[in-house]
Amino acid sequence: MRRHYYIFADGKLVLKENAAALPEIGIDDALNTSFVRSGLVDRGNMNGDIWAELKKDAVLPEGYSLNERRGLWPMFGETEFFHIGKAYHIADWHRTNRYCGVCGAQTFLDEKEWGMRCKECREISFPVIAPAIIVAVEREGKLLMGHGVNFPPGRFSVLAGFVEPGENLEDCVKREVFEESHICVKNVKYFGSQPWPFPRSLMVGFTAEWESGEIEVDNCEVLEARWFAPDEMPDIPQSISISRRLIDDFLRRHA
Fold first, then answer.
1. Burial of 25 (0-12, 13-18, 19+ CB in 10 A)
2. CB contact set of 43 (below 8 Å; sequence gap of 6+)
3. 211 pLDDT exceeds 80?
4. Could you tell me the pTM of the whole model?
């Protein structure tokens, strides 16, 4: 069975240029000399894949290149795309938790707890997962979508936002929709979830119905928002994302 290296530098993934493939353990081991840290991708699988972070001054040997992770879905498919995301999530966790947030001492991986434990005060930290909601809001057969500040020109998607301390997911849906569009919603229902490692989110999808209000965007996170009928769809996100799944679900139900 092939075992792979998931090697990252500044959030980008190392691939073999000639085949656009992941480096293999036992074949591409020359890359090891450029690792600043590494570990197992799958907990407890001692013979599994390995994540690694490149040294800042590392120069890749000929035949390898750095690639943006967001563009890897068409090349690898959904399962491998999210495995790459898992590897990055763990690598990034190790990178950002080398020192204790309580006393500043160095940490080490406590393999029993699968956490980064402080050598001095014994404080332990676990991989950070940031929950965020994403919601398809409907009104009279139309879908509410917004143009985010970082979107490409013409791109629209359903609204989303991060959960704040003290909130449940349903309250977060209502708050985020109101903050971004000035729309109040009702009948909030769970749709599905998806890990989204850019860098460490868990997207929790919902559907909801318009209750009151007219669109008034915040001009901070969302620059424009509109109601779209099924035959009026603008440029929308790629099919792998839960945002696209919510949009496709709306289109199926209103076909």
1. middle
2. 114
3. yes
4. 0.89
